[in-house]
Amino acid sequence: MAKRIDISGLSAFYGNHKAIEDISMTVEPRSVTAFIGPSGCGKSTFLRTLNRMHEVTPGGRVEGKVLLDDENLYASNVDPVTVRRTVGMVFQRPNPFPTMSIFDNVAAGLRLNGSYRKSELNDVVEKSLRGANLWNEVKDRLNKPGSGLSGGQQQRLCIARAIAVEPQVLLMDEPCSALDPISTLAIEDLIGELKERFTIVIVTHNMQQAARVSDRTAFFNLAAVGKPGRLIEIDETERIFSNPSVQATEDYISGRFG
Ligand SMILES: Nc1ncnc2c1ncn2[C@@H]1O[C@H](COP(=O)(O)OP(=O)(O)OP(=O)(O)O)[C@@H](O)[C@H]1O
Ligand SMILES: [Mg+2]
Q1: Ligand 2 centre and the CA of 27: distance in Å?
Q2: Which domains does the chain have, with CATH numbers?
Q3: Which of 11, 82, 202, 241 could form a disulfide with 63 if both were Cys (CB 3.0 to 4.6 A apart)?
Q4: What separation in Å is there between the alpha carbon of 14 and the centre of ligand 1?
């Protein structure tokens, strides 16, 4: 289940442009790690290197290592498709498959893997929807399209879809930024529950959210426009928000940035 991630000397490029540089850090299992930092400092890029999605972008290339419980995700014998199954992702905009029913959205990953027995499918879909705190709202309309749900429900549907394949790590890139405050709180509660089973990394621009949901916080910054983003510091969330070690972190969290 939940796995530890150990990143060392990681840089990521888009063609000749180096977006992030020399990042080393660890992510503890069954914990929530928040990534914060100004726009363009490479948070999303970094997140996508953790499940080999970065290289899907034309010109996308990575240097360095990402170990998942001691296995390098970038070793030549590792299949990126397997990595993406193990390290799931939830995006900023809820992106349910629009023509698919709620049921089929959740079942999609399992069907793709071919790793289920038909009798199991109903159980897994229910369990995942319950896990995403959505079951009660949709149990009577599982065959209706996923696109007919509210934004917050769609995001929980995407979380259900992501957890249905039992990943070990869940990456979330600003999962609440398109949601209203009530849906945001629902997702935050859910993150608190999910961390008992998964290793979670969340990117957020919302400092209160980082403070509420995460155990550790990593602050990223750019030395200057056009320079690659770097990890400035990572620490217990409480410490980052009360007494960070680096002045730039203090400036950022107190809004004195730029
Ligand atoms: N597909 C792409 N092709 C080329 N450059 C890209 C691409 N995506 C991102 N970049 C560049 O990589 C750098 C980091 O972008 P990234 O999206 O990772 O930042 P971010 O910290 O997630 O920003 P935001 O907070 O605005 O989401 C930026 O300079 C950006 O312009
Ligand atoms: Mg981003």
Answers
A1: 19
A2: 3-99+167-252 (3.40.50.300)
A3: 11
A4: 9
